[in-house]
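Technical annex B. To support the medicinal chemistry partners, we prepared a structural model of the target in complex with zinc ion, based solely on the information shown next.
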Amino acid sequence: MDQEIEHRWCKFCMTKTKQELVFLPNMATYKRRRKYKCTVCGKTSWLQGRRPSAESVY
Ligand SMILES: [Zn+2]
């Protein structure tokens, strides 16, 4: 399967790195947080997903 990769800021590398999406919650009602794993330093961190363009998402 395809691995989801996003370019996100890594606070450990202090730069933008390729980060693997390792956990995506099924219920994203409270703060859409996803777990990313940096492919450079291997550290995992919880980051909020990008702000949706519209608030009215059903
Ligand atoms: Zn990193």
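Notes passed to the chemistry partners:
The radius of gyration is 12 Å.
The longest strand covers residues 15-23.
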